[in-house]
Amino acid sequence: MEREITGEDKGWWVVSQQNKIWLPGDKLPYGPAAEFSLSGLSGRPIGEWQGDTVWLINHSRSQNMASLRQLLNEDSGLFRMAGRGVQLAEFYRSHRYCGYCGGEMQHSKTEFACLCTRCHERYYPQIAPCIIVVIRRDDKLLLAQHVRHRNGIYTALAGFAEVGETLEQTVTREVMEESSIRIKNLRYIASQPWPFPQSLMMAFLADYDSGDICIDPEELLDAGWYRYDELPALPPAGTIARRLIEDTVALCRSEYQ
Ligand SMILES: [Zn+2]
Question: Which residues form the Nudix hydrolase domain (predicted)?
Fold first, then answer.
């Protein structure tokens, strides 16, 4: 639970406000609180990383407030802890009053939740489930340039689950909407919390079934079939999209090389 940080407290320090994180020297601060002048601020433990406590301090510093994306190349466990901190900071900031009765909220002492002091409604951080899928057609992958990434990279198709939808339905619908392709043989691969802002990416592989690519110009700039050994610019390492593409390339290579 939240308490005043003393000079003896030590561990990893997630100092975050408004989706920014404090990264002095481009690193997540690690060590005793006194070393970073954090004593006296209010903080809470939010987990452990490599045997040390990870602390969240909901606070902004005058310099070195950066995007969490700068930690994408760090160990994935550390990135997830920092992502948890940034998202919790935003959750607490956006839940100061109850949406039902307007009463003041207090932070739960036992879980990541806010409780209304008047009507006792309980609120949890919202996580948006999002699918990402690579479609394989023999020795080729379907990759697309998304309207929302203006950086020239080609990546997998992706989209958010809608209310009342299974993930399988989300994948089929998103692929049809964005590319007009029918898929088959859908398999779940892995997941990655993606705190930009609060998604949980669930990665799938699928095989091409039928149809010709016809893109939705609201979502995609371009899409095409790329041979596994002639790929365009890809998303960076550390993203689940990159892993999904590399897994598919390995499958193609084992069959076609
Ligand atoms: Zn209430």
Answer: 125-248
